[in-house]
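Quick one, tokens below:
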């Protein structure tokens, strides 16, 4: 009976430990993986990265989803047939394409100036998505972060967003990871 009681007690402790570990991991950040594409380096959430050709094969879009929160991250690299006029600012360029951003501010990533803002309307990304946009000659680089609370409509999910999604998602780490080759 004593041996049986000890075995049962150890089994219960083991189960409690596994449950505790699962609860602890459910509230943690799974980490990043570094991705290199067309001379650019950036971090996306650990897991599957989907690569989709865009703009008749002159561009590529990479997307990944954060396991814990369901947030979507994306990087799009486009080579335009001709560079936009140098006097045309990035926000003006986006507006000419039908995209409107709010809360724009200048950002500097690895010595390259760009803009950061939140999508209001246009085909750039769902409204509420945070974006950063950079122009290097005739190449445009777009970074997208869509929290699950916004992405759930596109994903047709009925799951409720996490209260701490911004803390889990760490969008600033994502944006700051961009390196130009």
């Amino acid at each position: 009976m004593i041996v049986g009681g000890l075995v049962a007690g150890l089994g219960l402790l083991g189960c409690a430990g596994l449950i505790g570990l699962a609860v602890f991991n459910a509230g943690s950040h799974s980490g990043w993986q570094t991705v290199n594409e067309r001379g650019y380096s950036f971090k996306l959430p650990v897991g599957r990265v989907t690569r989709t050709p865009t703009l008749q094969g002159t561009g590529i879009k990479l997307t990944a989803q954060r396991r814990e929160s369901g947030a979507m991250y994306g990087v799009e690299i486009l080579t335009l047939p001709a560079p936009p006029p140098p006097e045309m600012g990035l926000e003006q360029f986006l507006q000419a394409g039908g995209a409107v951003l709010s809360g724009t501010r200048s950002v500097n990533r690895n010595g390259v100036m760009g803009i950061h803002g939140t999508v209001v309307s246009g085909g750039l990304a769902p409204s509420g998505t945070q974006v950063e946009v950079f122009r290097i000659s005739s190449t445009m680089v777009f970074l997208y972060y869509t929290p699950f609370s916004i992405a759930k409509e596109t994903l047709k999910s009925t799951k409720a967003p996490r209260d701490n999604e911004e803390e889990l998602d760490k969008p600033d780490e994502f944006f700051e990871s961009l390196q130009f080759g």
